[in-house]
Specification:
This protein has about 190 residues and is α+β, with helices and mostly antiparallel strands. The chain contains 3 helices and 8 strands. About 20% of the residues lie in helices and about 25% in strands. A 5-stranded antiparallel β-sheet has the order 1-2-3-6-7. Strands 5-4-8 form a 3-stranded mixed β-sheet, with helices on one face. The chain is globular and about 45 Å long. Bound molecules: [hydroxy(3-phenylpropyl)amino]methanol (SB7) and nickel (II) ion. InterPro entries: Peptide_deformylase, Peptide_deformylase_sf.
Length: about 190
């Protein structure tokens, strides 16, 4: 199982690489990795598992964060988060997006970043995405709100991009044109 000690931090070169496409059928190793990424996000939202294994909560995690440069991530929102999305995304793509932007009013955090970095992270408000599941079956879905933000945060990890790369360096809280603010009451 993935623990905090397995998560690479800011400064690690894998976080700045473009991750490789994954081939199907999945190798046993890739399948295990995808399942472990999902297991981490599910456990990281469970009070008892957090205590027991000293996990940091996260709604998503991407393979490069455990030092594997492959295009795989998992996103999971706990049932009572008010969202419903639980996906393993392999070779994910954004096929179209809104002109309107969105940002989290509280800013973003990252399991690979051990400090608080204030500022708005502009994202697309709505996205249509494609990805493959563990069986190599392609699916397509539309996302908005927090799930759309989480998907873009994870997709960035596959492209070597960190959330703070998007923050305006001159004024981290400068108004973002044509954007809606999203507030969340759950962690990360
Ligand atoms: C804020 C946090 C996340 C997504 C969107 C907004 C995920 C945090 C956990 N991760 O570091 C995942 O890459
Ligand atoms: Ni992250």
């Amino acid at each position: 199982m993935i623990l905090m000690k397995d998560i690479v931090r800011e400064g690690h070169p894998t976080l700045r690489q473009r991750a490789e496409e994954v081939k199907f059928p999945l190798s046993a190793e890739d399948k295990k990795l995808a399942e472990e990424l999902m297991e981490y996000v599910v456990n990281s939202q469970d009070e008892e598992m957090i205590e027991k294994y000293d996990l940091r909560p996260g709604v998503g995690i991407a393979a490069p964060q455990v030092n594997v440069a492959k295009r795989i991530f998992a996103i999971h929102f706990d049932e009572d988060s008010g969202e419903n999305l639980s996906i393993i995304a392999i070779n994910p793509k954004i096929v179209s997006h809104s002109v309107e932007k969105a940002y989290l009013a509280s800013g973003e955090g990252c399991l690979s970043v051990d400090r608080f970095i204030p500022g708005y992270v502009p994202r697309y408000a709505r996205i249509t995405v494609k990805a493959s599941d563990l069986e190599g079956k392609e699916y397509k879905m539309r996302l908005k709100g927090l799930p759309a933000i989480a998907f873009q945060h994870e997709l960035d990890h596959l492209n070597g991009v960190m959330f703070f790369d998007h923050i305006n360096p001159d004024n981290p809280f400068a108004e973002i044109e044509n954007a809606i603010a999203i507030s969340r009451d759950i962690e990360e």
